[in-house]
Specification:
It is found in: Cell membrane. By secondary structure, this protein is α/β, with parallel strands linked by helices. The protein is built from 24 helices and 23 strands.
Length: 667
């Protein structure tokens, strides 16, 4: 193994030539300039609030402020904001609690070089970006995407680039732009997902860059390879999250980019979908040779694309990636992957983020071993960290509220749901009783997310459907309603999904955490989707108890139990857009759980979470199921996320029920 590592080091020798970082390719006997280079860059989110920020500038409606001012918490928060000076504002992000290690930092210092994919051997040439939630991955990708979308502007205009520079290989960019459809960079990300949904065209048209009616040979091959032919005539807003991810990947690849940026590209994909995407990426790194050429594509269409993959799951790291960058604690580390497996790299990430000296010792021990076969043992211990006791959860769920006695929470009878003449659900007969825990299963496009969204809508707004929303064409459905006690709302449906997350990222950029938690993410989402254009839409009569929200934030590790009131107030004043994707997901989970719902619907709740936070979230869900009579509907394509308490399954296929009843055999 040591001989192989020496060969890798020789082939990957880095040189500094003329002040420019270059990679030396011993096989071709020449140096290669990087496609992009962060040079002594300092990245951070834009300053969020001014010294004299008013209540209305924080995004709170007048009636919301009047109500919240009656709470000591908000008065303290308002006072803290009014007394903040410039120094405090500069350290605003220091107070946001990160994952297990609790590192607190504001800026990310980046020196990162990504080279072209020119060595298309079996080892590939891809580049991996690894880091825990809130480590700086989202910030790095936001900086890169913003720079490329604003190519005509100067680097100083990038709101995330505080100092240093971001260099893009202009020669490569110019060469790519000489052809009509080629791009320097394409990306599959939250940004591209939102952009696709903003213009609900057909899948067929979405896969033709620059307009026209003819699919390119590359697009045709990928459509067959990824099983997308049945989707071509559907509009993109009728697709599931997993189906959209496949559309985005094909859309990105048909532009033959020099650099393909993938941010959690496999989120929402079923098992076959993940296998298809992984195989496609391996062939991208190999230059689209062999199979594509068999289809009659000439050599000029074999794009040598470099892939920068940001991921949180070890199983998504395939053999074609030979460089890895660890991100965390305000710094990064880039090195050759060597012979390390995906599991090995996650172990290395943990060691490096904890202590650099222990990382060096750990990697040396890996050189002498054959790799590791399991995830870090710290996950098992960490999953129990700060999980509330059964007594605490019982007190939390029933505090200051009357016991609800309705036993049937969902009752669907011959339900048929359509959207744009597409049948999404048909002939659904299903009953969910209090205390039942269901796995809502099925392949991409089976109708799972449609059903979860419908349950929220029926609970919150008495079936006030929004523009272009799915509609009930036949049958009926009854869903539990929330109740109000002492001005606080509880019960009903708590809901977290990728759809909610995407909507929040697009429409709630300037909303504060305090606002989202107090009004409720599900309420905000349903109101945004409705036809209610009242400017006073946030003037609601009942709110979520902020004390309950703070407790859940502590359970999820967002708040430290020992945090001072001023620190808590500062965190609650942060804007949604200035959180990492993982932090945003934890906030949405906290909002749903804080309502103490009768029915909790979690649609891929661990998407965007590192394994440490996944373990914490799953541990909390298991504790809630054990201590309360809350019903649970859990939607996932990852069998390892199904906790023991989930003992029933509703399996859908193309909108119809395949299985309904006891879960067995890991189905």
């Amino acid at each position: 193994m040591s001989t192989m590592i020496q060969r890798v080091k020789i082939r990957r020798l880095h040189l500094k030539l003329g002040g420019q970082s270059r990679r030396y390719n011993s096989q071709n006997n020449h140096t290669i300039s990087p496609l992009l280079k962060f040079d002594s860059a300092v990245l951070r989110y834009p300053q969020e609030i001014s010294r004299n920020t008013s209540d209305m500038e924080l995004g709170l409606e007048a009636d919301t402020i009047t109500y919240l001012q009656n709470q000591d918490m908000f008065l303290a928060s308002k006072g803290a904001l009014e007394s903040s000076n410039n120094e405090q504002l500069q350290h605003l992000q220091n107070h946001w609690q990160q994952s297990a290690s609790n590192h607190e930092h504001q800026a990310l210092h980046v020196d990162l070089h990504v080279y072209p994919n020119t060595e298309c051997k079996s080892a590939g040439g891809g580049h991996i970006l690894l880091g825990r939630n809130a480590s700086g991955k989202s910030l790095t990708l936001k900086t890169l995407i913003h720079t490329l979308h604003a190519a005509e502007e100067s680097e100083q205009s990038n709101p995330y680039l505080h100092s240093g520079s971001l260099y893009i290989d202009k020669q490569s960019e110019t060469k790519q732009m000489n052809t009509r459809y080629n791009h320097f960079l394409s990306h599959v990300s939250f940004e591209s997902h939102s952009q696709l949904l903003s213009n609900p065209i057909s899948v067929h048209r979405a896969l033709i860059p620059g307009g026209g009616n003819r699919l390119s040979p590359t697009a045709q091959f990928l459509i067959v390879r990824l099983g997308m032919f049945p989707l071509l005539q559907r509009t993109v807003d009728t697709l599931s999250t997993g189906e959209i991810r496949r559309v985005l990947l094909v859309q990105a690849l048909v532009t033959k980019p020099s650099l393909l940026l993938l941010d959690n590209v496999m989120d929402g994909l079923d098992v076959l979908g993940r296998q298809g995407v992984q195989n496609t990426l391996e062939r991208v790194l190999s230059g689209f040779r062999m199979d594509i050429l068999v289809q009659g594509i000439s050599a000029k269409d074999t794009a040598r694309t470099q892939v920068l993959l940001s991921t949180l799951r070890h199983e998504e790291i395939s053999d074609g990636f030979d460089r890895v960058t660890f991100v965390g604690a305000g710094r990064i580390l880039t090195e050759d992957r060597g012979q390390r497996s995906g599991v090995d790299l996650i172990h290395c990430l943990y060691q490096w983020s904890e202590d650099e000296s222990s990382y060096n010792k750990f990697t040396k021990s890996l050189d002498k071993a054959d790799g590791l076969n399991s995830e870090p043992n710290v996950i098992n211990a960490y999953s129990k960290h700060d999980i509330p006791s059964k007594g605490d959860l019982v007190s939390f769920w029933e505090s200051s509220n009357k016991k609800q006695h309705r036993d049937i929470l969902v009752e669907a009878c011959e339900l048929k749901v359509i959207r744009d003449n597409t049948i999404l659900l048909s002939g659904l007969n299903w009953t969910v009783q209090r205390g039942e825990r269901w796995h809502l299963a099925g392949t991409n496009g089976a109708g799972k997310s449609t059903l979860g969204r419908l349950l929220l809508r029926m609970s919150g707004n008495n079936d006030i459907s929004g523009v272009n929303d799915a509609t009930i064409d036949d049958g009926s459905i009854i869903v539990t309603q929330p109740q109000t006690y002492h001005h606080f709302r509880r019960g009903g449906v708590g809901w977290v999904s990728t759809e909610l997350h995407l909507h929040a990222a697009q429409h709630w950029k300037d909303r504060t955490l305090l606002e989202i938690l107090s009004i409720g993410a599900g309420t905000l989402f349903d109101r945004d989707k409705s036809n209610d254009n009242d400017s006073n839409a946030d003037n609601i009569k009942d709110f979520i108890d902020i004390d309950m929200c703070l407790a859940v934030l502590q359970w999820l590790g967002v708040l430290d139990k020992t945090a001072s009131p001023s620190t808590t107030d500062t965190i609650l004043s942060r804007k949604f857009d200035n959180l990492s994707q993982g932090e945003q997901k934890l906030l949405l989970l906290a909002s749903a759980i804080s309502q103490r719902p009768s029915l909790l619907i979690l649609d891929e709740p661990c998407q965007g979470l590192d394994m440490w936070n996944r373990a914490r979230v799953l541990g909390l869900i298991a504790a809630i199921c054990e201590a309360t009579d809350t019903s649970l509907i859990y939607i996932t394509h990852h069998e390892e996320e199904l906790i023991d308490g989930i003992d029933k399954v509703l399996l859908l296929e193309q909108g119809r029920v395949v299985q309904c009843g006891a879960r067995y055999g890991g189905t």
